[in-house]
Amino acid sequence: MKGIGLSLPNRGILFGAISVSEMLELAEFADKGEFFDSVWVGDGLIAKPRVEAVASLAAISSRTERVKLGVCCLATFPLRQPVVFAAQWASLDVLSGGRALLAVCLGATTERSGGNAAAELTAAGITSRERVPRLEEGIRLVRALWNGPTSWDGQFWSFPEVSLEPKPIQDPCPIWIASNPDPARMPERRYRAAIERVATLADGWQTAVTTPEEFGRKWDEIRTAADAAGRDASAMTSSAHLMINLGDDRAAARAEGKRFLDTYYSMDSSDEILDRWGAFGTPDDVLARIDQYLERGLDLPILRFASFDQPQQMALAEQTLLPELQRRRGPVPAC
């Protein structure tokens, strides 16, 4: 295990699950503590609105000094103008002293995943079929802008040579891809393309709502494909966004976790979804589930408290779950 991440519910600010001050205090607590080495926020626009991700991370950067600052995942990346975004993300990396960690994804395409995905695409002037090529071209274009003067002649963007400033402090500034391809629900060619996309374009892989067995199989496929493409698969990082709720009463912890997730993601979480998404119950229950992912190659568990009392869950985790997790990865580097 390479680290432990804390996912802060920046959408929860909109419905009272967390306040701005609580979110910033939790980030500061994670930064000063001994357990976390990264802090994450989510991203969304119309389908799943929230306090905007880059702005949230900029605020968090002013309250922290050590932890990496990530977004899991930047669902609006295919909707964003890449030149403007490249400047925004490079600025975040500069302001944070080189701590920005970008994970991009395609975003929601159906109402099954909650929210109004169709309205979001329509408002952005983008069709669903454009999401994949926009994501792929956007990654290449952002990297080119960060590397130096560049001109571009692509499918969606074209311009003569420009030099973008500032450049990120990190060189290279990492870009991960967040995805959860499902071979049972998509054609084989699309599944293979999703695996190849991570293997050839990304510095790491992030996923969610997947069983440990599925996670391990996909991660093995990504690394095999990366090696076949001549990349160093050992340099890539795997992460999973896991929802947890700690409590002595397993049924009560699961029930609160469901209420939180249903509100947060505008959906009705089935038992299957809850079982695939995280763990709810005693610290031993949650730890046992995380261990199943670690045994299958997970480098970075990113934990979100599926709770309407984030500080209380953090206090309980600090006393019980986090010390056990830390033993599995060693100490967090000092500031």
From TrEMBL:
This is Luciferase family protein. One of its GO terms (biological process) is alkanesulfonate catabolic process. PANTHER family: ALKANESULFONATE MONOOXYGENASE, ALKANESULFONATE MONOOXYGENASE-RELATED. InterPro entries: Luciferase-like_dom, Luciferase-like_sf, SsuD_RutA_monooxygenase. It is an enzyme of class 1 (oxidoreductase). GO terms for molecular function: alkanesulfonate monooxygenase activity; glucose-6-phosphate dehydrogenase (coenzyme F420) activity. Residues 18-261 form the Luciferase-like domain. Keywords: Flavoprotein, FMN, Monooxygenase, Oxidoreductase. Its EC number is 1.1.98.2.
